[in-house]
Structures are given as C-alpha cells and as structure tokens.
Amino acid sequence: MRHSIKEYKAAHINPEKGFRIHLLVFVLANPIIWAVWFLTDTTYLWPVWQTGSWAIGLLFHYLGVYVFKKRNH
C-alpha cells in the first residue's frame, strides 16, 4: 500500500486539517464503540475511559493547533 507524499505533507503543512481529521475520526468512531458496549456486556461502563482519554487528547490537539500556535518570525 502506497501513501501519497502530497497527502502526508498536507497534514504537516496544514495543522488545522490534521485537527479536523482527528475530530472526524473521534466523532465517527465513538458511537461505534458505545454501540459495541451497548450490544455486549453493559455491566461495566468501559467506553467512558476510552472516550474521556481520547477527548483529552483531542483537547490538547486543539490547543496545540489553535491556541498555542507556533509563531514564524
């Protein structure tokens, strides 16, 4: 499987695009994870740990891209 160099560089050149991809994967994957929990053993609420941890990572990604921007002088 070959990855396009142009696609690889686009995520590094455009951090906003990288964050949007991360957010999209988060929004699409979490309902699936919760559905798996709901359809299997619901005695322990394990998706809370996964969703919470991932949300913290997403928050730091957001802060790194939009709040603490690198300044090019």
UniProtKB/TrEMBL annotation:
The keyword Membrane applies. It comes from Flavobacterium artemisiae. Residues 12-68 form the 2TM domain. Pfam families: 2TM (PF13239). The chain crosses the membrane at residues 21-39, 51-68. Keywords: Membrane, Transmembrane, Transmembrane helix. This is 2TM domain-containing protein.
